[in-house]
C-alpha cells in the first residue's frame, strides 16, 4: 500500500516549489521552478499569473508522480501582499499580479497619511500606510485597468492574494477564500475583530463584493479539481509564507522568533494571544488562526536580503553562485569600512522610507569584489539587528534564540555574523525549507494526520547552532559604521 503523504506548494517571489512530506513531517521529494520578474516601469514589479499557475501545476504534478505516495491533503503558502484581480467567469486575471515589492502607490500612501488615516489603519490592521501592502495596489488596478471598476461594481471580478488565486484555480473556480494570515496583510482586515473592515474598504474605494471569505489557517478550504491529480484532494492549509515559516519552525510559544532569508527578510516574534502594538516601526500581524483561536506576532520586514546577493550575481556579475559570497566574505579579516545599504526598493521596517536608495560607502582603491560581497551579507545581519532592537524596545524581552531559514540561511559565514550582531544564539534547522513544511503541517492538521500543532514540533531538528563570538566593542564599532551608511541612504536625513 502506498505510504500516506502530504503535499505543499510554496509560491515565492522568485520561484515556485512543491514538496512532499511523510506523516512524521519529514521531507520526501521536491520540484522547483524559477519564473520571470517584470519591471514595466521604475519601481514597479509584476508577475504573469499564468507563469505562476503553469509552475504550480508542473511542480505539483512532478512531486506527486515522483513520490508516488497516497496524498492526504495539500497545503498552500505564498508570497504575501501580491495582488491578483480576476474574472469570476473565465478565471483570467485582468492585469499582471502587482508584487509586494512594487512602489507605484507610494504617492497615494503619502496622501492618505497626510489626510490623517495612519492611526486608524494602524489600530485596526497593525500595518502602516506603505505601498508594500495589498490594498492600495488593488485600488490601482480598479482605477487603471479599463472597465475594471465597473466590472467590480457589478460583482464580476474577484480579488485575492496568491493563496486565494491558487485556491480558485486548484478548485476549478469553485472556492473564493483566503486565510487569516494573508488577510492580515491587505490593509482591509481588522486583525482584532477578525473581519474585513467597511471603513477601510471605503477609504480605498474597494467594493466588498471583491473580497474572499476569510478562514482559519488549518481547515478544509475545498478540493482540487479531479483533472489536476487524477482525483479530488482536500486543500487543508493556507498561510502567508512568513507565517507558514513560524509554523514550520515550531515557534508556537510566546517569545519564539524566526527569521527567514529569501528575497527579503522577515523576522516574526510570537506574542501569543496579544496583538502587541509597536512604537518602533514594526508591524502587528496574525501569526496563525487555528480552531478559532488567533495567535499574533510582531513582524519586522526587510525588503532586500537574498535579493542583494542575487544582484551581485545578475546585476554586477561579481559571483557565479549565491553561495560564492561565503568564501569571498571569509577571505577578509574585516570589512575595512565598506558598507552596503540594500535600499533598492526603499527601506522597510523599522524605517519605512520608500524613497531611500541603495548605497555602498567607504570604498577606497584597495576595495575588491570580496568587500562588496561581504558588505551585502553584513547588511542583512545589521538590518536584522535593527529589527530585533526594535522588538526589544517594544517590550519583547524574550528573544532568547532566533531560528533561521530560507535560501540565504545556508550561508555559514552569514549565520555566524548574524549571531555576532544579534549577540544571540542562531539556530538552523535540518530542514531549511520550513515555509513549505509549515503549509504541509497546517494541511495535515486539518485532515487529522496530527491532532495538534505541538505534535508537529517534535519533527523540528537542529542542524547547526551559531553562538555569538564577537567582543562587544567590535560589535558596537561595526554597528556605528552601519548607522552612518544607513543615514546616507535615507531620502531625508533622519532627525
Ligand atoms: N548560500 C547563499 N548565500 C547567500 N545567499 C543565498 C545563498 N543561497 C541562496 N541565497 C539567496 O537566497 C535567495 C533565495 O532564497 P529563497 O528562500 O529560495 O527565496 P524566495 O522564496 O524569496 O524566492 C536568493 O535571493 C539568493 O540570492
Ligand atoms: O517570497 P519571499 O519568500 O521573499 O516572501 C515574500 C513575503 O511574503 C513578502 O511579504
Automatic annotation (TrEMBL):
Inhibited by fructose 1,6-bisphosphate (FBP). GO terms for molecular function: glycerol kinase activity. Pfam families: FGGY_C (PF02782), FGGY_N (PF00370). It is an enzyme of class 2 (transferase). Its EC number is 2.7.1.30. Key enzyme in the regulation of glycerol uptake and metabolism. Catalyzes the phosphorylation of glycerol to yield sn-glycerol 3-phosphate. This is Glycerol kinase. The lineage of its organism: Bacteria, Pseudomonadati, Pseudomonadota, Alphaproteobacteria, Sphingomonadales.
Amino acid at each position: 500500500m502506498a505510504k500516506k503523504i502530504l503535499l505543499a506548494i510554496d509560491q515565492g517571489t522568485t520561484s515556485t516549489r512543491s514538496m512532499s512530506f511523510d506523516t512524521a513531517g519529514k521531507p520526501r521529494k521536491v520540484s522547483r521552478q524559477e519564473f520571470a520578474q517584470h519591471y514595466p516601469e521604475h519601481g514597479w514589479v509584476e508577475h504573469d499569473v499564468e507563469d505562476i499557475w503553469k509552475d504550480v501545476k508542473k511542480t505539483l504534478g512532478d512531486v506527486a508522480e515522483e513520490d508516488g505516495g497516497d496524498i492526504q491533503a495539500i497545503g498552500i503558502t505564498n508570497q504575501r501582499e501580491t495582488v491578483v484581480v480576476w474574472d469570476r467567469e473565465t478565471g483570467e486575471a485582468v492585469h499582471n499580479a502587482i508584487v509586494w515589492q512594487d512602489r507605484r502607490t507610494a504617492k497615494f500612501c503619502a496622501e492618505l497619511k497626510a489626510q490623517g488615516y495612519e492611526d486608524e489603519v494602524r489600530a485596526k490592521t497593525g500595518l502602516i500606510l506603505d505601498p508594500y501592502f495589498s490594498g492600495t495596489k488593488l485600488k490601482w488596478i480598479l482605477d487603471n485597468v479599463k472597465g475594471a471598476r465597473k466590472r467590480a461594481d457589478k460583482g464580476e471580478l474577484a480579488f485575492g492574494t496568491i493563496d486565494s488565486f491558487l485556491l480558485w484555480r486548484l478548485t476549478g473556480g469553485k472556492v473564493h477564500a483566503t486565510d487569516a494570515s494573508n488577510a492580515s496583510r491587505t490593509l482591509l482586515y481588522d486583525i482584532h475583530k477578525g473581519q474585513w473592515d467597511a471603513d477601510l474598504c471605503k477609504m480605498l474605494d474597494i467594493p466588498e463584493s471583491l473580497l474572499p471569505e476569510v478562514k482559519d489557517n488549518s481547515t478544509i478550504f475545498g478540493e482540487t479539481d479531479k483533472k489536476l491529480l487524477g482525483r479530488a484532494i482536500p486543500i487543508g492549509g493556507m498561510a502567508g509564507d512568513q507565517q507558514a515559516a513560524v509554523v514550520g519552525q515550531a515557534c508556537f510559544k510566546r517569545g519564539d522568533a524566526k527569521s527567514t532569508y529569501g528575497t527579503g527578510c522577515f523576522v516574526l516574534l510570537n506574542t501569543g494571544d496579544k496583538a502587541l502594538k509597536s512604537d518602533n516601526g514594526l508591524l502587528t500581524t496574525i501569526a496563525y488562526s487555528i480552531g478559532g483561536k488567533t495567535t499574533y506576532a510582531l513582524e519586522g520586514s526587510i525588503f532586500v536580503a537574498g535579493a542583494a546577493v542575487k544582484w551581485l550575481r545578475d546585476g554586477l556579475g561579481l559571483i557565479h553562485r549565491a553561495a560564492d559570497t561565503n568564501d569571498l566574505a571569509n577571505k577578509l579579516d574585516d570589512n575595512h569600512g565598506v558598507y552596503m545599504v540594500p535600499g533598492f526598493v526603499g527601506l522597510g521596517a523599522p524605517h519605512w522610507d520608500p524613497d531611500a536608495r541603495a548605497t555602498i560607502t567607504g570604498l577606497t582603491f584597495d576595495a575588491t569584489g570580496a568587500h562588496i560581497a561581504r558588505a551585502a551579507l553584513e547588511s542583512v545581519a545589521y538590518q536584522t539587528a535593527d529589527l530585533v532592537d526594535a522588538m526589544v524596545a517594544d517590550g519583547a524581552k524574550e528573544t532568547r534564540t532566533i531560528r533561521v531559514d530560507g535560501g540565504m540561511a545556508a550561508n555559514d559565514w552569514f549565520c555566524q555574523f548574524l549571531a555576532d550582531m544579534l549577540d544571540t544564539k542562531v539556530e538552523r534547522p535540518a530542514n531549511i525549507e520550513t515555509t513549505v513544511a509549515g503549509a504541509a503541517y497546517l494541511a495535515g492538521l486539518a485532515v487529522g494526520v496530527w491532532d495538534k500543532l505541538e505534535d508537529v514540533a517534535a519533527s523540528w531538528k537542529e542542524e547547526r547552532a551559531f553562538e555569538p563570538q564577537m567582543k562587544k566593542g567590535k560589535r558596537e564599532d561595526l554597528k556605528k559604521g552601519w548607522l552612518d551608511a544607513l543615514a546616507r541612504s535615507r531620502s531625508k536625513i533622519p532627525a
